[in-house]
Amino acid sequence: MAALEFTRRYTMAHRLLATKSPKCAIPHGHNEFVTVRLAPTASFRFSETNSAAPFDQIKKRWHQWIDEHVDHTLHLGENDPLIGFFREHEPGRLAQIMTFQGDPTTEALAACFWLKLSAFVADEGLPFTVAEVRIEETPTNTVIVNRDVFDAGASGLRGGAWPLRADMSINDF
Question: Among 3, 20, 52, 67, which one is least packed by beta carbons within 10 Å?
Answer without folding.
Answer: 20
